[in-house]
Write a structure and sequence with these properties.
alpha/beta, Purple Acid Phosphatase, chain A, domain 2, six-stranded mixed β-sheet, five-stranded mixed β-sheet
Length: 225
Amino acid sequence: MKIWHISDTHGYHDLLEVPEGIDMVIHSGDCANYRDVVRNLNEVWNFIEWYSSLDIPTKVFVGGNHDTSIEERMVIPEDFSSYGITYIENETIELNGLRIFGSPLTPTFGNWSWNKSREKLERIWRKIIEEDTDIVITHGPPKGVLDLSFDKRGRLEYCGDKALLNRIKEVNPKLHLFGHIHNYRDIINAGTRTLPDGDTIYSNGSMMTDGMFGIKTSNGNIFEL
């Protein structure tokens, strides 16, 4: 099975080049951009119509912190399913012979959607089933993996969640797919990597670079399972 992972399209999904021969496309959040839920709602519906039109048999979506109208249930999970899109929120599903966990939650940063304190997030990550989980989709990254950016004081920091990293190491899925932390200046987060103490391939599918919205700087990542 060939899987295309994309994330953080922020309303610019039309810039993506859709690869050929893809069996499953997974979007790990931030299909929209505006905080205002009415403007956000328009962005989300524009995305849903585009996403559903792709010539790819299986389409999966997990929300992100910029998808405010989805958190407010102005767009509901059934809206996605009516367009042939599988929506996952803090649960594990079985799809095409794969066990997939998805969550939109990220550590609190600003007044955005699906934010939780790092202490509370650890309880959510315990929902990831240890046996035979193939893919974990989270909007945010694990600590120290494709998550380098600047804090509010302008200092470099790894922005991901340590509890999530620990849980991924315990579960050891084939893929951990996320976004949230974009490229910035000469910092490249989009792409893939592995760690020496596990088999998981980590993927940051972010399409955008901070300060350069409207210009595609990544076309996502492709995997074969």
